[in-house]
Design brief:
With 184 residues, this protein is an alpha+beta fold. The chain is built from 4 helices and 8 strands; from the N terminus they run E-E-E-E-E-H-H-E-H-E-H-E. It is globular.
Length: 184
């Protein structure tokens, strides 16, 4: 049995997945975890995911249907353990704002993420400060009609293993999620 106080986290897989029962039972939604006694399930991917790097190893863009997620590495946005934007940060955020305008999106969710070094409470505060900093720059480059929300998740949503620096580096990021053509 795992220690409930362990700081090890399981990576989160991004994308939309539809679970259907092989035994012909009911389908489960993405948010529902089938019980251990449920029949075995087959995972069917229903979304074609497109990923492309936008000219920088510190920027990742993923498109799933009309949903677009741009992940900006905290390493290119901020100094270590800081929410103060770097010189290159405004350019990266401005490029993302242009993509949001071109998409015709009416809403953008800005999410700050950290690795698991330091206390969880410190990571939560830092991730919120970083999401707020990115949101302030976005506001300068987007129409007032675009709704912006900023939320810090701290270490709660890792995308890589926090056991080595390469994984922690990937987990330190700010993501901007929006939908094309005003559907979000």
């Amino acid at each position: 049995m795992k220690n409930p106080h362990s700081r090890q986290r399981t990576p989160v897989v991004l994308g939309l997945v539809l679970l259907t029962s092989v035994a012909g039972g009911p389908a489960h939604s993405v948010d529902t975890v089938p019980s251990a006694t449920a029949p075995s399930h087959q995972v069917i991917s229903v979304v074609h995911k497109i990923s492309k790097v936008t000219g920088s190893s510190g920027v990742r863009r993923e498109e799933t249907g009309d949903r677009v997620e741009v992940a900006l590495s905290a390493g290119i946005l901020f100094g270590k353990d800081s929410a103060r934007l770097s010189k290159i940060a405004e350019r990266r955020i401005t490029e993302t704002a242009r993509a949001i305008r071109e998409a015709g999106s009416s809403a953008v969710a800005v999410a700050g993420h950290t690795d698991n070094l330091g206390s969880a409470s410190h990571g939560l505060v830092l991730s919120q400060q970083r999401a707020d900093a990115v949101t302030r720059v976005l506001r300068q480059h987007l129409p007032n009609t675009v709704r912006l929300t900023a939320r810090g998740y701290g270490e709660a949503r890792p995308i890589a293993d926090n056991h080595d620096e390469a994984g922690r580096k990937q987990n330190r990021r700010v993501t901007l999620t929006f939908h094309r053509r005003g559907t979000g």
